[in-house]
């Protein structure tokens, strides 16, 4: 009897250890926040295993459209998750956050030697700057809308995603650029938090792509108080659900 019980326990432990991970595709801007969410969920559901793949929204959508076996897709827009539902490649989708756009110039100081944290930073900017490729990244699309309104001759560097824009600026390859507020909650140097009404917004939706039970549970967890606290603490606004 004892031996049989030990065998059952061993099989149970083994099944947990070998549980199939939930595969999650996430837009680059949300990767760090998703990792916090996944670890919080795992603290409540110890059997939860996951694997995260991060890239621009457009690249991930193309991978999913061509059969990439993801269980969840955290997009940085609302268009592609809705398309996946319409195409029969997603079970359902919902909003999980609204992203905030920041124009960041860490080394810039005004004539008085002070940093600038209002719209004058962008209004008077004439040097080279960067933003994410608007065909791949919704944050880049929002930045492009502002760039077209400004209509100056400053050179623009296109990155694959907002994380790469952050890298360009941090390493000094460009002096400024448009990044997601979620990249870091406390920006050093000069920056401007772009008001939501100056662009079409970055409504971020998640698509449930499979019927894996752990994926469904994690999808539902996003509506919990814990999850929404983590999301807002990392620079996002909550959608009206």
Automatic annotation (TrEMBL):
Superkingdom, natural source: Bacteria
Pfam families: SBP_bac_11
Residues binding molybdate, per UniProt: 57, 162
Alphabetical UniProt keywords: Metal-binding, Molybdenum, Signal
Coiled-coil portions: none
MF terms in GO: metal ion binding; molybdate ion binding
GO annotation terms (biological process): molybdate ion transport
Signal peptide coordinates: 1-19
Family (UniProt): Belongs to the bacterial solute-binding protein ModA family.
PANTHER family for this protein: MOLYBDATE-BINDING PERIPLASMIC PROTEIN, TUNGSTATE_MOLYBDATE_CHROMATE-BINDING PROTEIN MODA
Protein name stated in the entry: Periplasmic molybdenum-binding protein ModA
Organism: Agarivorans albus MKT 106
Lineage: Bacteria, Pseudomonadati, Pseudomonadota, Gammaproteobacteria, Alteromonadales
